[in-house]
Amino acid sequence: MAGSRFLNTVSGAALTMAVAVSGGVVAAVAVPTSAYAAVVRNIVVNGAGQAGNEAIKSKLSIKPGQSFTDADINQSIRNLYSSGYFSDVKISVSGSTLVVNVTENQLINQVVFNGNRKVNDKKLQGVVQLHSLGPYNEAQAQLDIQHIKDAYSSIGRSDVEVSIQTATVQDNRINVAFVIDEGGRTKTRKINFEGNTTYGDSRLASVILTKRSTPLSFLTRKDIYNPDKLREDERLLREFYNNHGFPDFRILSTDVDYDETDNSYSITFNLDEGDRYRFGDIGVESTVAGVDVSNLGGDIRTKAGKIYDADDIQKTAEAIAASVSSQGYPFAQVNPRGDRSFTNDTYSVNYEIDQGMKAYIERIEIVGNTRTRDYVIRREFDLAEGDAYNREMIARTKRRLEALGYFSEVDIKTLPGSAPDRVVLQVNVTDEPTGSFSIGAGYDAEGDSLVLELSVEERNFLGRGQYIRASAGLGDDDSQIYNFSFTEPFFLGYRLAAGFDIYRASSSSNEYYNYAETAGALRLTAPLTDDLYSTVKYVYQQFEYDGQGDWQNPANLSPVYQNLVINGPWTVSSIEQQFNFATVDNRQLPREGVLAQLTNTVAGLGGDSHYYSMEGKARWYQMISDQADIIGSLTARGGFVTPFDDTLNVFDQFTIGGQQIRGFKQNGIGPRTVTQGDALGSQYYATLSAETNFPLPGIPEDINLRGAAYVDAGSAWGNAVEVANTAIEGVDFSIRASAGVALIWNSPFGDLRFDYAVPFVKEDFDETQRFRFGIANTF
After folding, report:
1. Per-residue pLDDT averaged across 580-585, rounded?
2. Which of 380, 509, 644, 701 could share a disulfide with 400, CB 3.0–4.6 Å?
3. Residue 489 lies in a domain
């Protein structure tokens, strides 16, 4: 048998018989080989059935007249199996003929789903691989069962049961049915934190993504347990503590218990907070010749005495890297070196500027984006292909991508390029839903009516990164409000946000007249720093007034309303320039930081109004109690308007009331006519508010229901509206003040706020309104 060759492969096993001589004993041994080459003249296929002989031959790596080895036989078998159409494959050589014997899988006639109510057929069809006219094999069927279970787990139904049934129809074809028992909804019954002494459980619960189950959880589905989401929760906790003074924070363990009796999970985070640190000495050093470190002081956010913040360290490193790059050192990298002092709990940081690797970006690859277009991701880079590799600028890009809100996960990897000085950047992202539909309610103070609003919002329209919002509101007394907004965040390829707004409102609830406003705006926003933006806006408004009821005859109206009805419609054409500054940690529920806005307006580019106005507002947030999650805030507002031609229209002046000093009607404060009590608005106003915001005792934090208590004070004074033969009161500066409480609900239908305020300093002619209901506002 020595020297003979036996080729008979079953399921990819290729063996050769050889002779082994050891200690004078001759034995026949089977050993794998791929060194021996052979040639066949023809190929015979048995059992092809519907697949067809030629289709099978096309999968072979062996061709008549060409030499082949056992490795080619193995590869041919793998190719046939990978097609999914065969349950068994055997290849053998008989003389000069290659014999291929196959057994076909059954073909699928139809795939159906039975018992599914919570997940529709279309979604399930997208997660299974078995499909009509495709081959059926048991291994893929089991994988598809797991895919269906995963789809149900994503909506909180981890105890779903899935089985599969098949029925032969004809010609080796079968129908496949996935039979689904959806089971009950899996809940997250408890979320516990152990070892936390600085921050209370409710504060930490607000940081993580997973929430406890509540009666409204079926709307938000934030109570769904998911191991990947749990890992993200751990990252968020580490990030939160690292940004609030705890560089030594650790998660000792995360315990997850599943209770089969009520189909729920309990999660316990075991924490070690460590000591809280403040920044100590801050320095900058450079080993790169020519870098002037004396010019880098403006880039440093980590100030001595400030609470340790890892995010500030990262942003400082990025800012220094950008400055050094602009000095002509694109390869320089910044390495923050920390030094703890255990005696006084300080953390000194030295930013060391070193020469990084001299490499260039060969290619930027985008992976995982199923919806967002590549260019939306690429434009967030300050680097392009061919530029010098800079680690800090890549870290800045990662933060920008995360801040977009388009992705649930962002990761940027550096891979070797085609040469030692070339690197490939691989950007891995996971798209997440960016559209929303909401039903909200608010109070239209101008029309003194309740308004129900439907809105549709998309933050990543067609994957282009564009923002679109449309809303419609209907209220009692025929009040109607319509809005449409569009924003292109990268206008003409620059980091400029351009957009337009269209607005229409009408109301019949005023005591004297019907009111309608139509407005449109064009705007352009440019970032000045990471925290400061400037917006230029052109606004065109048209106001229409029409007397109603007994006041349809304008002669019955007061002089103010006569002017509005008889001389309308009115138009205002204006240019606005606005600065917006924001350092808050969370836009939805700020706990720390500042929100500020300054608006300059010039009206008079045509139209009926000619004036200049300036209006500013700022709100400072600070934690009063980290343990109890009590937030304090101070808000200051003010403004003035001055005419170019000595007079203003009544709609040019400021209307002050319930939005600024709660407990009063909107336009309930300020100058008004003595006889009729017509509100004229004011030329000047200033207000100051102090508020505490706190969780309600006994209410789960995941219901997002909080309380507030506040004190408001301020004044509205001055008048430039001409009113013939009518006395005016309230023109002089006079303080008003109120105190109140509020209930704030971050509901699935929008952020709602219920206020009850009592004025305790007011004028006799002021109009009060103790209860107010509307959309919650961070300002």
Report:
1. 92
2. 380
3. no
